[in-house]
Amino acid sequence: AWMMTSAALVLFMTLPGLALFYGGLVRKKNVLSVVAQCFGCAGLVTILWVVCGYSIVFGEHPAEGASNGFPWLIGNMKHFFMNGVSSTPDGNYCYWVSENVFAMYQMMFAIITPALITGAFAERIKFISKLAFTSLWMLLVYAPVCHWVWGGGWLGAMGVRDFAGGLVVHATAG
Fold first, then answer.
1. Does pTM surpass 0.85?
2. d(CA 154, CA 156)
3. Distance of CA 110 to the CA centre of its chain
4. 145-161 in b/e burial notation, b at 16+ Cβ within 10 A?
């Protein structure tokens, strides 16, 4: 219950939190655009996370021997379309909470991270361009770095610990 409550609180930081915050920083004519960009990020990242994002980040722990040839860079596609994600805990990442709740909780951080970038783009980018950027950024920047630190990649193997998201969320969001 606490993990689901925490996931909801992180989502509230994005919608309406960041949407209204960034909306208040722009001119009146661009408020709707900035709010739409935050909502668009939330929807797009949710789809990407379910299709392949969770699998890229938490596909397989490198200690088990990932089969994709790059165990330290990205995870494999073990959980493509959330295949095999169930209510039982995954001993590699979530020892005490069900894997589907863990995946939802991690998805909230994947949503808020590109929404943070919206503040840099406010009044400067078209909606479709923001969505294209978010897609590429999510798959080429966020997911690999998240795997490196939280998913058992090379930084995690070196002892890097990121409990609050400073490296994965804030450093990748710039």
1. yes
2. 5
3. 1
4. bbbbbbbbbebbeeeee
